[in-house]
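Inputs:
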Amino acid sequence: MNPIAISLTASAILFALGLFAVLSRRNAILVLVGIELMLNAANLNFIAFWRWGGADAALSGPLFVLFSIAIAAAEAAVGLAIILMAFRHTRSNDLNRLDSLHG
Amino acid sequence: MIPLLILTPAILLAAIGAAWKARPVHAALLLALCLSLVGCLYVAMGAHFIGLVQFSVYVGAVAILIVFSLLITRPSDDDEEKVRRMKTGMPALACSLPLLVMLGFTMFKQSALLEAPADEPAMSLKVLGEILFTDYAPAVLAMAVLLTAVMIGAALFAREPSKKPEPPSDS
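Outputs:
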């Protein structure tokens, strides 16, 4: 079996697991866990294509992953800050309770 | 090839645990394990610097931030979570399974057309730094601005709202 086939299949499974976590969880922080899994699946694809793609793409794959990791860190920081703010209002992380907006 | 065969099942098992465990702290710790194994896979693939960044940013910052957020907030009851997941699990599976089949089939078919190069592509830190600060310099600057804005925004969101002083009573 081709190594790129293994890593791309693993990345597809990782993405599907992340999507499953996002859709099935009701705890807002665990939804963020699912999003992190999906981002990692995308990063794994970039590195796999850089390593085994065979194209003359220099360092495009690792550079994309570098920027993606920075954006993921920013997303996690803002996401958790918003979740903490919502927790102060509702005293819960349950997404079902966040069904109303107050100005 | 051998590290890939060892690490890939371990990554997927940790990811299954992170997506399925009812107890939030266990799920977060399994996410940290999954992220660190992905970092090991990057190192095994020859992207040593990216593996290091993965460890320091994802495992060292993001996963720990998630664990601390779970400790600060009060996670919901495990039994309640298990009951709820029975309701939400099937629709989530119905959405993610067709996607998995489609992605897996496409990637597997396309990857058969690619031939793995014999030699590992070189990833020199000197070259990476030169590319980052010449061709990608605007992107690096934009990222710096974004991260600064995020830092300020997150601090503003997460701070305790200041209590207004009560007006003095007339009596």
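Remarks. Chain B touches chain A through 83 residues (CB under 8 Å). Chain B has three domains: 1-75, 78-113, 124-158.
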